[in-house]
């Protein structure tokens, strides 16, 4: 597919040809993969250390209080996701990506020098806004470049890079914290990632919005309702409620991040209470996103072949089983098996959800639909922090994990019952 395009300082000249496809845009695509690995690493600086910081440095004795940083992060990221799509349609993808990195600059300083828990919460508001802009934009830019045929593979590579970045940093910060303390060492790594990510985004990343416009010119809607010219309110209601596939994906994304918020905030505390060392806690905190990240290299491409629905519904049920194992376990071996299974289930779901949005949404409003899906998905962090904190304070962490396991299983059943099964075959 090749179309000419014009206008704008950031778009190609009239003599340029826009070609969609992974092979055709491989150099730019791989640079975006590297940038998203740094986005993930910026988030990973907190996965092992922050729950322990809440308990050991700030002496927060209520889980609900300790999880306020995840609540703040989730709300900030969810809201920013919504605006990221609109902003990237209006101003282009690259300016939004660069803005996200600039906003992240103060976060490591707040985490290192914060004298009270309020500073840590503020750092996570900053980090949530940054992640909403940077991660959302790398998703959109990869969708722009590859076109419809390899979208699942593209999302698998994108999310694999991000969550392998999370995993590697979670493992590294665990070892840094065990040797040099909870502050400042682990967060210096995050500061380095932000500096490199900003430099790469400014110097090496090109604009991709014109690729989406080229695709829109020849797009064939998957089904009635997936057409151009929708207003923001129409895109929101279609993505959130009206379209069976889009709304199924949105609720599954929300529940997925609900259980991820639980894993982020309470798993390290549960493992520490059982007497595990910081090194072993770091291993468990890293294995989950490592399996999640690496598995997406397989599941994203697999969803292009067998469809989105089986992987989403099945993945939610696998996650539910893994959470049940965490709730019942009390030793390193059981928990290691559980986090491997949790990572595998999440790998089945995560890139497939994004690819499913791209299948149904018209290229003209796809960025807005992705932003709305990510609004619901990352709102799951906030819901998970509140729900799991309240239940853990009242009945203990295992009870909170068991409740979230039940919700995750229910989400998988909803996808199986409601989502269309063949949208990915309608494009091309």
From TrEMBL:
Pfam families, sorted: MFS_1
PROSITE patterns: MFS (PS50850), SUGAR_TRANSPORT_1 (PS00216)
InterPro entries: MFS (IPR011701), MFS_dom (IPR020846), MFS_trans_sf (IPR036259), MFS_Transporters (IPR050171), Sugar_transporter_CS (IPR005829)
Subcellular location, principal: membrane
Regions crossing the membrane: 26-43, 63-84, 96-113, 119-139, 160-181, 187-205, 311-329, 335-354, 397-417
Intracellular or extracellular location(s): Cell membrane
Membrane-related topology note: Multi-pass membrane protein
Keyword annotations of the record: Cell membrane, Membrane, Transmembrane, Transmembrane helix, Transport
Domain (Major facilitator superfamily (MFS) profile): residue spans on this chain: 20-423
Name of the featured protein: MFS transporter
UniProt organism field: Pseudarthrobacter humi
């Amino acid at each position: 597919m090749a179309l000419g395009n014009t206008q704008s300082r950031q778009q190609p000249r009239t003599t340029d040809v826009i070609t969609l496809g992974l092979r055709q845009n491989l150099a730019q695509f791989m640079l975006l993969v590297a940038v998203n690995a740094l986005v993930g690493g910026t988030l990973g600086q907190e996965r092992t250390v922050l729950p322990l910081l809440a308990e050991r440095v700030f002496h927060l004795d209520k889980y609900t209080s300790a999880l306020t940083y995840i609540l703040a992060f989730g709300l900030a990221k969810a809201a920013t996701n919504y605006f990221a799509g609109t902003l990237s349609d209006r101003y282009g993808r690259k300016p939004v990506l660069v803005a996200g990195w600039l906003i992240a600059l103060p976060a490591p300083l707040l985490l290192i020098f914060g004298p009270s828990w309020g500073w840590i919460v503020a750092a996570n508001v900053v980090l949530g806004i940054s992640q909403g802009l940077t991660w959302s934009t790398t998703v959109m830019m990869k969708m722009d470049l590859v076109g419809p045929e390899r979208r699942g593979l593209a999302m698998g590579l994108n999310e694999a890079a991000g969550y392998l970045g999370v995993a590697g940093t979670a493992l590294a910060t665990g070892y840094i914290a065990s040797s040099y303390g909870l502050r400042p060492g682990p967060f210096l790594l995050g500061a380095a990632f932000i500096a490199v990510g900003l430099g790469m985004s400014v110097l090496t990343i090109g604009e991709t919005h014109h690729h989406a416009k080229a695709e829109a010119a020849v797009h064939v809607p998957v089904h009635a309702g997936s057409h151009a010219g929708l207003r923001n309110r129409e895109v929101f209601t279609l993505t959130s409620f009206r379209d069976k596939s889009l709304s199924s994906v949105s609720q599954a994304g929300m529940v997925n991040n609900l259980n991820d918020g639980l894993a982020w905030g309470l798993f390290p505390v549960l493992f520490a209470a059982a007497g595990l060392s910081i090194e072993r806690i770091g291993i468990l905190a890293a294995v989950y996103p490592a399996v999640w990240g690496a598995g997406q290299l397989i599941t994203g491409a697999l969803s292009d072949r067998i469809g989105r629905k089986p992987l989403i519904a099945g993945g939610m049920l696998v996650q539910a089983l893994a959470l049940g194992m965490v709730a019942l376990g009390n030793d390193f071996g059981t928990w290691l098996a559980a986090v491997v299974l949790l990572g595998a289930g999440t790998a089945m779901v995560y890139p497939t959800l994004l690819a499913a949005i791209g299948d149904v949404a018209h290229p003209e409003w796809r960025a807005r639909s992705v932003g709305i899906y990510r609004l619901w998905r990352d709102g799951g962090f906030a819901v998970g922090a509140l729900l799991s904190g309240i239940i853990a304070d009242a009945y203990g962490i295992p009870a909170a994990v068991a409740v979230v396991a039940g919700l995750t299983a229910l989400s998988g059943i909803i996808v199986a019952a409601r989502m269309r099964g063949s949208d990915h075959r309608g494009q091309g």
